[in-house]
């Protein structure tokens, strides 16, 4: 394998000063995400989602951000998946965005709740038909299967059950989660590993945010 110890970059693209920060971390995040989308980065709305089970065993995977609002960061998945089971017993998560081309990462932590059924159904209806069928086919998500044929057969069966033109109902086991962010961290890479980091911590429900600079 390639020797990794000599592979390194210096981060020189930008700096982040306290004066640059939006007092509202959601607006700060939206600004950075918009820059990433505007720059044409590939799937900058993909995030790493870390959860843990009742024993504290962590697990992490990528999901797509489908909304970033005051009420939380939204993603959609299968409620019976590994992550769904984790969130059932331990409804808290940390999420991470990494935009290497911009030498930035954003972390957000908070309690997690399910998106109301009607809202999940509305989003499900807006998805491409093949994705709707795949959501049905991949159940229970994260469970072992014999081979790919099992999945393909389920998909074909679903195509027959819901021919073109008939609506595909949202499965009960599929829907959204929302991370109600209580803590944000914005990281901007700097030269010589002297990075800029700022954390926003919620002062209290309905109150403002305390901002602190962190050691890199
Ligand atoms: C770029 C990318 C986007 C993904 N988006 C989603 C998503 O929005 N929802 C989802 O359930 N899985 C998504 N996945 C698959 C998950 O990473 C994961 O494999 C799956 O949800 C099962 O995770 P679990 O077993 O930890 O529950 C995505 C994977 C990648 C690489």
UniProtKB/TrEMBL annotation:
Positions binding FMN in this chain are 61-66, 76-77, 83, 105, 141-142, 187, 197
- What GO molecular function annotations does the UniProt record carry, in alphabetical order? FMN binding; pyridoxamine phosphate oxidase activity
Recorded hits in PROSITE patterns, A to Z, give: PYRIDOX_OXIDASE (PS01064)
Residue ranges annotated for the Pyridoxine 5'-phosphate oxidase dimerisation C-terminal domain, each copy included: 174-216
Q: In which pathway does it act?
A: Cofactor metabolism; pyridoxal 5'-phosphate salvage; pyridoxal 5'-phosphate from pyridoxamine 5'-phosphate: step 1/1; Cofactor metabolism; pyridoxal 5'-phosphate salvage; pyridoxal 5'-phosphate from pyridoxine 5'-phosphate: step 1/1
Q: Which Pfam families match?
A: PNP_phzG_C, PNPOx_N
Q: Where is the Pyridoxamine 5'-phosphate oxidase N-terminal domain?
A: 33-160
For the ligand (substrate), the binding residues are 8-11, 66, 123, 127, 131, 193-195
Iron among the record's keywords? no
Broad class of enzyme this protein falls into: oxidoreductase
Q: Which Gene3D superfamilies match?
A: Electron Transport, Fmn-binding Protein, Chain A
Key words, A-Z: Flavoprotein, FMN, Oxidoreductase, Pyridoxine biosynthesis
What is the E.C. number? 1.4.3.5
The UniProt catalytic activity note for this protein reads: pyridoxine 5'-phosphate + O2 = pyridoxal 5'-phosphate + H2O2; pyridoxamine 5'-phosphate + O2 + H2O = pyridoxal 5'-phosphate + H2O2 + NH4(+)
Q: Name one GO biological process term.
A: pyridoxine biosynthetic process
> Is Flavoprotein among this UniProt entry's keywords?
yes
Note on cofactor:
Binds 1 FMN per subunit.
Needed cofactors, names only, are:
FMN
PANTHER family the UniProt entry points to: PYRIDOXINE-5'-PHOSPHATE OXIDASE, PYRIDOXINE-5-PHOSPHATE OXIDASE
Per the entry, what this protein does is: Catalyzes the oxidation of either pyridoxine 5'-phosphate (PNP) or pyridoxamine 5'-phosphate (PMP) into pyridoxal 5'-phosphate (PLP).
Query: Quaternary state and partners of this protein?
Result: Homodimer.
Family classification: Belongs to the pyridoxamine 5'-phosphate oxidase family.
This protein is called: Pyridoxine/pyridoxamine 5'-phosphate oxidase
Which species is this UniProt entry from? Deinococcus budaensis
- Gene name on record? pdxH
